[in-house]
C-alpha cells in the first residue's frame, strides 16, 4: 500500500521552519540568536535547544562580519566541516578545514602529549586562522582559549562541544573570555548542531549588509 507523505524537500523545510518559528515566538530569545535557534532546533528536532543558546555581546553581528571577510575556517572534526553549506562557504570565500587526521597534527600530538584536537588548534593558530567551529572536543576549545590568552588573534568562535567532561566548562570559559562567540551552553552539543548554527550564520553573512 503506498504511503502518503511529502516528497518535496523545499516544502518539507519550509513547513518545518514555519512550525518552529510559530513555537519560538513564545520563547524569550535574544533577537540576534533567533535565526541560529531556528536552524539548531530544526537540526535537533528539539525546542529545548533554543533556551541553551548564548552569545557574547553582539556575537552574531561580529560573527557575520568575520565570516564575510572569508578565509580559513577551522572545524574541530570532519563532521562539522562536511556539514557546512558548500555554496555558502564558496560564495563568501571561506575555506573550511579539519586537520584532525593530518600527519603533522598527529606528530605534534605525540610529541607534546596532548589530544589531536588540541594539536589541530595549535597548527591552525600557528597558521593564522581566526575563525573556529567546535562540535566535538572540549579540549580543543580550551586550547584555543589558551592560545588566545597568549596573543593568538580570534575573530569568531561557534562553540558546540559535547560531553560530560569539560564541555560545559569550556563554553562557560569562552563566554567569560570576551571573544566573539555563539555557544550552546551545558554538556549538550555535537557536530550536526554546530554545523546548523554555522550555516545559519553563513546565510546571514550571505545577505546584503544593512545600510
TrEMBL record:
Pathway, per record: Cofactor biosynthesis; adenosylcobalamin biosynthesis
Signal peptide span:
none
Looking up Pfam families in the UniProt record yields:
CbiC
Share an example GO biological-process annotation for this protein. Answer: cobalamin biosynthetic process
Identify this protein by name.
Precorrin-8X methylmutase CbiC/CobH
Query: Can you give the residue ranges of the Cobalamin biosynthesis precorrin-8X methylmutase CobH/CbiC domain?
Result: 12-203
Keywords for this entry?
Answer: Cobalamin biosynthesis, Isomerase
Note whether Isomerase occurs among the keywords: yes
Please give the Gene Ontology molecular function terms for this protein.
precorrin-8X methylmutase activity
**Organism annotation:** Aminomonas paucivorans DSM 12260
The family assignment reads: Belongs to the CobH/CbiC family.
Amino acid at each position: 500500500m503506498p504511503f502518503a507523505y511529502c516528497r518535496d524537500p523545499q516544502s518539507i523545510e519550509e513547513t518545518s521552519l514555519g512550525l518552529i518559528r510559530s513555537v519560538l515566538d513564545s520563547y524569550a530569545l535574544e533577537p540576534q540568536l533567533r535565526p541560529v535557534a531556528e536552524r539548531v532546533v530544526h537540526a535537533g528536532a528539539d525546542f529545548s535547544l533554543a533556551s541553551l543558546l548564548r552569545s557574547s555581546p553582539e556575537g552574531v553581528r561580529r560573527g557575520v562580519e568575520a565570516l564575510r571577510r572569508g578565509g580559513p575556517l577551522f572545524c574541530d572534526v570532519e563532521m562539522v566541516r562536511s556539514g557546512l553549506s558548500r555554496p555558502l562557504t564558496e560564495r563568501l570565500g571561506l575555506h573550511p578545514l579539519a586537520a584532525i587526521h593530518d600527519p603533522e597534527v598527529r606528530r605534534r600530538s605525540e610529541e607534546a602529549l596532548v589530544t589531536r584536537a588540541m594539536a589541530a588548534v595549535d597548527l591552525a593558530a600557528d597558521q593564522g586562522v581566526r575563525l573556529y567551529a567546535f562540535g566535538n572536543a572540549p579540549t580543543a576549545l580550551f586550547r584555543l582559549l589558551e592560545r588566545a590568552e597568549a596573543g593568538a588573534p580570534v575573530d569568531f568562535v561557534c562553540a558546540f562541544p559535547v560531553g560530560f567532561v569539560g564541555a560545559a566548562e569550556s563554553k562557560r570559559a569562552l563566554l567569560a573570555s570576551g571573544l566573539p562567540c555563539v555557544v550552546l551552553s551545558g554538556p549538550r552539543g555535537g557536530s550536526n548542531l554546530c554545523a546548523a548554527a554555522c550555516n545559519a550564520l553563513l546565510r546571514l553573512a550571505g545577505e546584503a549588509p544593512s545600510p
